[in-house]
Amino acid sequence: xxxxxxxxxxxxxxxxxxxxxxxxxxxxxxxxxxxxxxxxxxxxxxxxxxxxxxxxxxxxxxxxxxxxxxxxxxxxxxxxxxxxxxxxxxxxxxxxxxxxxxxxxxxxxxxxxxxxxxxxxxxxxxxxxxxxxxxxxxxxxxxxxxxxxxxxxxxxxxxxxxxxxxxxxxxxxxxxxxxxxxxxxxxxxxxxxxxxxxxxxxxxxxxxxxxxxxxxxxxxxxxxxxxxxxxxxxxxxxxxxxxxxxxxxxxxxxxxxxxxxxxxxxxxxxxxxxxxxxxxxxxxxxxxxxxxxxxxxxxxxxxxxxxxxxxxxxxxxxxxxxxxxxxxxxxxxxxxxxxxxx
Amino acid sequence: xxxxxxxxxxxxxxxxxxxxxxxxxxxxxxxxxxxxxxxxxxxxxxxxxxxxxxxxxxxxxxxxxxxxxxxxxxxxxxxxxxxxxxxxxxxxxxxxxxxxxxxxxxxxxxxxxxxxxxxxxxxxxxxxxxxxxxxxxxxxxxxxxxxxxxxxxxxxxxxxxxxxxxxxxxxxxxxxxxxxxxxxxxxxxxxxxxxxxxxxxxxxxxxxxxxxxxxxxxxxxxxxxxxxxxxxxxxxxxxxxxxxxxxxxxxxxxxxxxxxxxxxxxxxxxxxxxxxxxxxxxxxxxxxxxxxxxxxxxxxxxxxxxxxxxxxxxxxxxxxxxxxxxxxxxxxxxxxxxxxxxxxxxxxxxxxxxxxxxxxxxxxxxxxxxxxxxxxxxxxxxxxxxxxxxxxxxxxxxxxxxxxxxxxxxxxxxxxxxxxxxxxxxxxxxxxxxxxxxxxxxxx
Lengths: 342, 444
Fold this sequence. Notes:
- The structure holds two protein chains of two kinds.
- Chain A is an alpha/beta fold.
- Chain A has helices spanning 41-58, 83-94, 108-111, 115-124, 139-145, 162-176, 194-205, 240-243, 257-261, 268-275, 279-282, 305-308, 315-336; strands at 72-77, 98-103, 129-134, 150-156, 183-187, 209-213, 235-237, 249-252, 290-292.
- Chain A has 13 helices and nine strands.
- In chain A, helix 2 (83-94) packs across helix 13.
- In chain A, 49% of the residues are buried.
- Residues 9-17 and 338-342 of chain A have low confidence and may be disordered.
- In chain B, helix 4 packs across helix 7, helix 7 (209-226) runs parallel beside helix 8 and helix 8 (238-249) packs parallel to helix 11 (295-307).
- Chain A binds chain B through residues 34-35, 37-38, 107-109, 114-116, 134, 136-139, 141-142, 156-160, 194, 197, 220-223, 226-227, 230-231, and chain B through 195-206, 208, 278-282, 323, 326-331.
């Protein structure tokens, strides 16, 4: 039999917001979150401390605050996603917003309505924030150019997945404190990974040493030897045994089946033999090193089962932190943007 | 047509005759009568060209007029008006229309429509293959008889090497070139821009330079083997320029063109726009095929144009409707509406000291004429020789103007140069003795 506990009486809603305000929210001036390639350290710090506040909200007995009450958030997903969409949806609901999910099953071309028209339609029905996932790189930029409301990029093509990178950073900081000088190895299909691109920007901007490891066919052109400011300053290493040496964090990327058949690598067997994150390889990293994965995992291919679920895995923490990070993003962005404020 | 015009006091540059001096140009009955100082006007309409450059009308060997079939993008009337605004008095119409210009009837339609609606000369280019499908030769003999000045499947390469070989052999019977859009599809498939750091930054799929140069090398080898004439369309990479240079040195019958945008814009335009900046634009108006390349390739194209490796400037004018560009980058159509900005854009090279004005004029007049042998179809074209067609352009090399696509005569407003100021303006265009364009600005 379960005991229904009476919630502790809450103090009357104070004049201050129900979320502990960060000291310098005025530093935030973004109406949209499209990518992290131009983020400064102060903005990142603000996002992290706001995420701390959101974690505190989520830890409450009744994890609900009315911070975004009256706001309408629409998730517009042109690609399937379970974790990202539900994470955003929950983030909006915890903050008291109305959340509407729109699944756009196909690209705008086959659907007949252009992306710009779709965004304008959603805006007209009252969206304050459109959270958008799209298979085409740059699609959220197109939306943002034509939107009065805020656009949050929940993943665009091969380009960026900023909230995933922010939750990755938050997860790392929870274990490491500062990431400056820490060695983060990103291993796998970097070429096709928007997560890797956003992670590289974010981590290098904070002074982490980022090593990218993949077969040369899966390394984006120009990544090694790009000029300053062009691409994140990462090191490329094709030998995973060398790359993981003394690493603080090892992040494995999903290896999609179509890449296996698409001629980028000879096949699953050789790929997993050369690039799987497993216990043997992890032993070359620092003793306190941990493993991350943006999910969904192909256990046995890019990551071994025992590592994915072992003591050094932070995969579940990543997912858990996702909600708080997205709450922070929605909170900060709506304080600048939102149709009623512009 | 019978209007008498005298263009007075301009700096006349006629590269075909190595002429560069202040002179008057007398025009009558659609022909050049005299180029000399102090010609008698005798009641002819006077055009004051003092302070301006007077040159043969520009010749564009690579224009997409979209007519028939795609008139929502452009038609012969609007396309030739755009040409006139750009200083062009001859445009060579690419055959990727609907239906394709792969047969006599379609080419005759284009010529008939041009006779009624065009304000500058339209010379048709026939398709290499039936339906431009790259499988079987079109009736090149019929197309040649109808007036085609060359053959091309442009928009797509002649991918099959044997078909290209046969085309070069067969076309040589008519003395006409095969114009190839060089792009190895197995290297460039799905690509929407140049492969490099900018594509990586944007998460867009890129085509390597080798997709172009490997097919240029193939075409050069086939031209050498067959004795045919291959004209390489829109060269955009250093490796392709080098391949053409080596082939010419060996005496292979190869000619080449380069677009104004490949001479002046880099792949960074896709990310940051032609005016620069930090914000990512994903500028679909900079999406073009071949793609804009890095500065090193741009430099090689400029050097190639300057030293004659590349014979001419060609616009690859590719107009599209607004909705074909107002969409996700991957979905956007390839192409730039280029006729009306060509001269101003190329003048950047002159103002930067990379090319002298007379050479630029050469590459836009007699250069393209000689490259494709257009004077066989139109004697005197590209020159101001007595008896030549009275195709004349007046330009002000220093006049600055703002690119405002909404003022284009072309239906295609798709240019990455919107809001950019260009230095070098077309002031007036005379085609076959008729004043077909006069700048809104007062003539000096």
